[in-house]
Amino acid sequence: MSDTSAVEVLARAKINPYLAVGPRRRDGYHTLATVMQSVDLTDTLVLRPAEARSVSFQAGDRFEGDLPEAPDLVAQALAVFAGEVPGSPAIATTITKSIPLAAGLAGGSTDAAAALLGADAVTGGRTPRLRLESMCHDLGADVAFCLRGGTAFAGGRGDELAPLPARHQIWWVLGIADFRLGTPEVYQRFDELAVAAGTPPDERLIRPQALIAALTAGHIKQAGQALRNDLEAAAFDLAPSLTKTKLALKHAGAVGVTLSGSGPTLAGICRNEAHAFEVAARAESLFPRVEVVPSTRVGAEIVSGP
Ligand code: C5P
Q1: What does the DSSP assignment read for the chain?
Q2: CA of 276 to the centre of ligand 1 (A)
Q3: By the 8 A CB rule, do 36 and 14 touch?
């Protein structure tokens, strides 16, 4: 990147090794007890000062399907930043997409988080982290996590974060579908299924102690057994093929498999890098796209700048 005023930022995808869902709150969100982990599937943002604010998307090598349409969350993030930091320049942003859209990998949220970090860097890097995080809260429940990355427990609507000391790199195989699931629709179906079954979600969510202990210690077998996602029944009801592909990813050798976020991506936990590539090779024919990704310690990351 030769432009000396430009900033390049990596935006990392996020998976949920654990997602317990409680009742819907008055603000429309559900109470969650979740473990989130950033993984090395990245969009790349380039931000530079410009005459007028603009956001454009281009497809990365492995990206399939339509690109995001305006108004997207990055434009909103840059508007929030401009409102909060008076005197900041207009910024032109180009985003190379690799993270699939509406796939349960927080692609929109992570681009928004990276845009805030990049906007701050373009503006001289003077915005305190806590202020950037509070801007994240206005943009969506998981944007603050995407800014930080790593591995965290989250309560509330998914934005009350407690970082976890998961020092071991975890290797995942992602089975990516060629259809999308809208997060609001999946949560809506979650509510409908609870009503139909006459079992309202419990307010007291089971905390992921076994999973946290396993991830912290790097015990993959125990972690595989402790994966959980309460949105699976709803997502599988909306997209029945997922029931079969989940089982198939397990048969391909993943130690445990769970839906990522509201889906449709399935995440299989693997013993190590070599094992992940073996599983991925066996899963190639099951999904339109398969990715092998390690967990990462950081979320949004500036890789070059002024
Ligand atoms: O926060 P975000 O805008 O990404 O959430 C998208 C939608 O997902 C919300 O409008 C809501 O319908 C649903 N959601 C929820 N409870 C959460 C997070 C998301 O119901 N904790």
Answers
A1: ---TT-EEEEEEEEEEEEEEEEEE-TTSPEEEEEEEEEEEEEEEEEEEE-SS-EEEEEE-TT--SPPP-SS-HHHHHHHHHHHHSTTPPPEEEEEEE-SPTTSSS-HHHHHHHHHHHHHHHHTTS-S-HHHHHHHHHTT-TTHHHHHH-SEEEEETTTTEEEE----S--EEEEEE-SS---HHHHHHHHHHHHHHHT-PPPSSPPP-HHHHHHHHHT-HHHHHHH-EETTHHHHHHHSTHHHHHHHHHHHTT-SEEEE-TTSS-EEEEESSHHHHHHHHHHHTTTSSEEEEEEB-S-SSEEEE--
A2: 31
A3: yes
CB atoms within 10 A of CB 74: 29
| Residues contacting ligand 1 via CB (< 6 Å) | 28-30, 32, 109, 140-141, 157-158, 183-184, 187
> Per-block average pLDDT, block size 10, for the chain (306 residues)?
82 98 95 98 97 95 90 95 93 97 97 98 94 95 97 96 93 97 97 93 90 96 98 98 98 98 98 98 97 97 90
Whole-model pTM over 0.85: yes
- Residue 29 CA to ligand 1 centre (angstroms): 5
Q: Which residue is closest in CA terms to ligand 1's atom 2?
A: 140
